[in-house]
Amino acid sequence: MKWSLNELRQTVDEPLRFKEVLDLKADLIKRRPDILDVSDVLVEGLFSVDELGVLGYLKIKTTVVLPSTRSLEPATIALDFDLTEHYVSFHERDLSRFEDTDVVIILENDILDLESVVEDNILLQIPMQVLTEAERKADASLPTGSDWSVISEGQLKKLQKDKDGIDPRFAKLKDFFEKSE
User: Fold this and answer.
1) Which helix (H) or strand (E) holds 78?
2) β-strands 37-38, 53-67: how paired?
3) Distance spanning both ends of the chain, measured CA to CA
4) Which is a Pfam family this sequence falls into (predicted)?
5) Domain housing 18
6) pLDDT digits over 122-179, tens only?
7) CA 9, 10, 11, 12 torsion: positive or negative?
8) Rounded (5°) CA angle 165-171-177
């Protein structure tokens, strides 16, 4: 689905609402080849015109299958997220009216392509660590050897806290009372 900015600006009185199911599997795999599968993407939302320009509210749901970052086994990730973006013409130079936290997308040729917006945001939502359900449950039983073991970050922090126990700035004071007797 594509709209021109002029079309969207004509919806001043009533926001443009939509609910679409998109098949983005081929495009997402082309952009990120390690993706194994993508279900159809449910997109609900609206575009409204406000004093800043065209504002889009979208809710996106899909599942993505990627190789596990630990074992390379297929792992399914459910994505369900909202996004809010402002869309402006590529002719506009002054974006000072927007807050620093606003997401502002400058539209090439003043055309809003819903599929590319959804693709970009799905790729942004994929986590860096992808684990299968079994790997998440068996996180406590990581591989070990005769003189080594793999531990999680949480386990490492706990070990460091237990080992150190004493703030290094006060390490010299730990024996203070033993010497005074």
Assistant:
1) strand 74-89
2) antiparallel
3) 82
4) YceD
5) 2-135
6) 999 999 989 888 887 776 567 778 888 877 777 788 877 766 566 667 777 777 776 5
7) positive
8) 100
